[in-house]
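Feature request, filed as a ticket because there's no other form

It would be nice if the structure record came with a short human-readable summary line next to the tokens. Right now we just get the raw output. Example of a typical job, pasted below so the devs can see what we mean:
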Amino acid sequence: MTRPLLGVSTPSGPAPVSGALAELDEFERAAGGRVGLSMWFEGWAHQEFRAELPEALAGRGVLPMITWEPWDYLGGTDQPGYALSRIAGGAHDAYVRRWAEGARRYGRPLLLRFAHEMNGDWYPWAEAANGNRPGEYVAAWRRVRDAFRTAGADNVAWVWCPNVAYPGATPLRELYPGDADVDWAGVDGYNGGTALPWGGWRSAEELFAPSLRELAAVAPGRPLLIGETGSAEAGGSKAAWVRGFFAMLDRHPEVGAFVWFDHHKEADWRITSSEAARRAFAAGLARLRSGFAGAPRA
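Raw output as currently delivered:
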């Protein structure tokens, strides 16, 4: 049986700044294993396609995954300029075409996780925010996806990645663009414990299993991944949570990759937030390492 590809998001990603890839080295040393996938974030208002970023990862055998966010990340949720109707209507076509052409010229396999966590209400591309209406997310997704198809950027695999289900979330069936426009289906989920005012302490099985079942029903046949995950320390034993996370992966062989969000942000999600957590992660990874799958094809 193949095992899920180990992915990570580090604060600097592959940015061409001093020490950026050193973060990846440090994570691998702490985890006791090689990373196969690296994820970082690019915002429409500020970033053009930069081939040097995925090239830096491909040069060390790491598959790049860009979380591509249609907004100005310096602003808030209310951003009329990035309303789904404007994206679907072509207001950002020139920018999207530049990205599509840049990705085609890059030429190597690349995962593009576009407009993630769309079933929530905290991003301007969510149908529950920014004056958006039902059906506009799918229309916007297809407009953007078609631009890459027209440009011949066939090296790009499209990752549709909602948040884990929660009361009040938009139903996934209303947001799924369809198998013809999605290559991977994913889900993001965090154990916030008592460090954050949402969620509470939830095991990895409690956090992910319902949404994985829903993904399998909404996107049957699509390979599945966990696009972001991590655990806080406050509220329980993070080391035990990490052990449970790897046990959850054993019970869900349909998960083909996962990305650990190794940032100190809303909470300290890093595997090195405590030595106990780091040891638990390294031990869990060691049990999976020998059977790790190769990088998924775009």
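Something like this underneath would help us a lot:
Residues 292-298 have pLDDT under 50 and may be disordered.
The chain has eight helices and eight strands.
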